[in-house]
Amino acid sequence: MSKQELFTVRDVMKADYDMVDGVATVRQALEVMRFVETKCLVVDKRHERDEYGIVLLSDIAREVLATKRSPDRVSIYEVMTKPAITVHPDMDIRYASALFARFHISRAPVVENGMIIGIISHTDMVIKGLMNLT
Questions:
Q1: Under a CB-based contact definition with an 8 Å cutoff, are residues 22 and 77 in contact?
Q2: I need a labelling partner for 131 at 20 to 30 A (CA). Which of 7, 64, 79, 110 fits?
Q3: C-alpha span between 110 and 118 (Å, rounded)
Q4: Do 40 and 107 form a contact (C-beta atoms < 8 A)?
Q5: How do residues 39-72 score in pLDDT, each as one tens digit?
Q6: Whole-angstrom distance, CA of residue 41 vs CA of residue 26
Q7: DSSP string covering the chain
Q8: 82, 45 contact by CB (below 8 A)
Q9: How many CB atoms lie within 10 A of CB 45?
Q10: How many whole angstroms separate alpha carbon 91 and alpha carbon 110?
Q11: 77: nearest Cα among 32, 123, 26
């Protein structure tokens, strides 16, 4: 029997992510997106004791596009999820996947020492992690 290699969130996460302020309009938030593979925006904390939020592009599609609301009149805080469920970079991807399933989420910020260091998604765990397990 071969020893199964451990993959952590840090091994498969994306270090690039886009962060926005919750008071930004949806249009402003979309205009500052820099990363081609971005499917979510992390909503920054308002102060030290606050929590991060997250808004998926699917949230914007459902809450703004499908309801014919103006992206200039909808603020990110109206469509975001807060607090965002976060994961630690040293978590085994199998546990991260179980957490995602339990809470019906598809991606989460990776937080270390109170700071976001990346984003992890089901896709990252399957493509980068599962495909490399022996």
A1: yes
A2: 110
A3: 5
A4: yes
A5: 899 999 999 899 999 999 999 999 999 999 999 9
A6: 11
A7: -PPPPP-BHHHH-BS---EE-TTSBHHHHHHT---TT--EEEEPPSSTT---EEEEHHHHIIIIITTT--TTT-BHHHH-BSSPP-B-TTSBHHHHHHHHHHHT-SEEEEEETTEEEEEEEHHHIIIIIGGG--
A8: no
A9: 19
A10: 10
A11: 26
Cβ neighbours for 40, distance < 8 A, ≥ 6 positions apart: 17, 54, 55, 56, 57, 107, 119
Q: State both tokens at 132.
A: 């490399």
Instruction: Record the pTM.
Output: 0.87
What is d(CA 124, CA 134) in angstroms, rounded to the nearest whole number? 17
User: What pLDDT is recorded for position 134?
Assistant: 54
Give the residue carrying structure tokens 């030290």.
48
Exposed (0-12), middle (13-18) or buried (19+): which is 31, by Cβ within 10 Å?
exposed
CATH architecture of 9-132: Roll (3.10)
